[in-house]
Amino acid sequence: MFQTAMYTGTKTENYELVIKQLRALLEGESSQIANLSNASALLNQFLDRVNWVGFYLTEEDELVLGPFQGLPACVRIPFGRGVCGTAASEQKTQRIADVHSFPGHIACDAASQSEIVVPLLKDGQIIGVLDIDSPEKDRFDETDEKMLEAFVAVLIEFL
């Protein structure tokens, strides 16, 4: 499942280790850009079978591209459009097994087949989303969803 040999536990244990690493990376740093950049790099290094890991940040009624790892991406996504815009407007994680079956999917990378998007909620307000794409269908499961939500909860503490 994971690219690096240091992740030898169960899937949940490996995520827990990455969440500890995230906390260590962010401790004492107040720059949102630096923290989001390190968070996307950490996840990109940790997860296998993904082709894009990054953030979109809220500006008025749309999401604007933030720090990411991967190919160039769509810059602006209106709330309610595509997987990211739906996650933002519904303030609910979207785990999509086949992006081509998602109504209104925005294809930034034609290689993407599945996607998970976790909203970033701070004080009840949507401040952005974590977006992860995979070139495989049905790449993300319930464990990924639960643990990425836990990852985001730690990240929010530092934003």
Automatic annotation (TrEMBL):
Q: Name one GO cellular component term.
A: cytosol
Under the heading Pfam families, the entry gives:
GAF_2
Q: Which InterPro entries match?
A: FRMsr_CS, GAF, GAF-like_dom_sf, Phosphatase_reg/MetRdx
| GAF domain mapped to chain residues | 53-152
Q: Which residues form the signal peptide?
A: none
> What's the superkingdom here?
Bacteria
Q: Which SUPFAM superfamilies match?
A: GAF domain-like (SSF55781)
Alphabetical list of PROSITE patterns matching this protein: UPF0067
A GO molecular function for this record? L-methionine-(R)-S-oxide reductase activity
Q: Which family does it belong to?
A: Belongs to the free Met sulfoxide reductase family.
This chain belongs to the protein called GAF domain-containing protein
- What is the species listed in this Swiss-Prot or TrEMBL entry? Bacillus aerolatus
